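Protein modeling request. Please complete all fields; requests missing the sequence field cannot be processed.
Requester role: graduate student
Desired output: 3D structure, token encoding
Chains: 1
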Amino acid sequence: MSGPETFNLLSPRTRTLAGLVLALSNFMVVLDLTIANVSVPHIAGNLGISGDQGTWIITSYAVAEAICVPLTGWLALRFGVVRTFIWAMIGFGFFSMMCGLSTTLGMIVAARLGQGICGGPIMPMSQTLLLRIFPPEMRPRAMGLWAMTTLLGPAMGPIVGGYISDNWSWHWIFFINLPIAALCVFAAMAMLRPVETDTAHQPIDKIGLCLLIFWIGCLQVMLDIGRDHDWFSDPLILTLAILAGIGFIVFIIWELTEEHPIVDLRVFRHIGFSSGVFTLALAFGAYFSSIVVIPQWLQMSMGYTATWSGIVTAFTAMAAVMSAPFAARFTGKVDPRIMISGAVFWLGCMTLWRAHWTSGIDFFGLALPQFVQGFAMPFFMIPLTTLTLGSVPPSETASAAGLQNFLRTMAIAIATSLVLTGWSDSQRVSRNELAGALQPDDAQRALSGMGMTTEQIRQTISNLVEQEAIAISVDYVFFISALVLFAAAVIVWLAPKPSGPVDTSAAH
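Delivered output (508 residues):
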């Protein structure tokens, strides 16, 4: 049964319990996007890999999720929404267990890929099922609960990940998913069977899917290993870049001519949608760069534990949860372009504020811009959905929502790689400049007068140069991110003002 009256098939009590389970499943998937960020130094140290290699744990999950999101509609139509949701949750639990059991970089990256592939459909599926089990008058409240889990996930991820890594073991940031996944699977089997959707044999764009995996895979591997191979002076990196470029061009041509494309690129013909999603990709990528850099800097150079670096990172999402109800109230009453542009400009100003951090900054100095930044997040995310989906006809809403989520997830993966590359290169340049500007004789005399040996003096100077070089490179990353955010605040004005009510039910 797939009509709008499906909500009558569940009792009010069952409906409420099912709604909580669906919100919990979404929370778990969003949490896993950031829970590993603060734990990368722990995982890298335990597996005997560099911090740069450790970031593959973040990017592999995001890339796999991005690739799988466009498949969600086909999977739901082919197997049914409830059945797809249950199997995706089983797969997510299994690969979470494999992540926790990993003993090598290859094993954990493979497991994170599996986790991302299974996690991709869970977000949109949970939203679709919420709309099916609640009557129209209760849907805004259900969507509000769902949106809160989407905002709370990134807030809790760094704190939960940091606490578990410091007090237990990094393996448990993945094992903790197992009981939640099991609860969601059994609850879905028990309560959601009556609202299963009809199935149909719809053709899948196999060539488009293969091309998508090919060019994204080449691009991401190039970005992840490029900094270790001196970029385009290495034939491997050059080959990957060429293959990614060719694959991307062929993918675009194929998708524009295919009757049932895996990614419907035709929606880009709507300027409102195009400007909105480019704003989203740029702003979300620049915002996520701080979530990647700050925990690693605080743990590697500033002496913070994973827990406290997670708390600093999470202040943004805490403020976002507080301001979300106000953003929802203004949406539909104020031109969404004003809200989006103002919010993204605010994010840029906060990022510019952080570009003046020093190695001597205290906890309050770190937390304040993070917290103030958070108030703008809902004013950016909520009206952006109104703008993008309001720019396409209803028949293309589902395709537009899927493409929007795909680009947002890809922005996270690509921004992570680019930011860590820029951070690493800037550290090397800053280190060389500081070493050249130092007056080693004066410093050695001063330290020698304090009773230090020659070896201790050399190590002290080296540590000081390294600490300052890392702080300068962090500021450089924030400065570039601020410029990207200011550009995104302008791009959104290319969109015409949306007219009429917008159906945001397909957004995810």
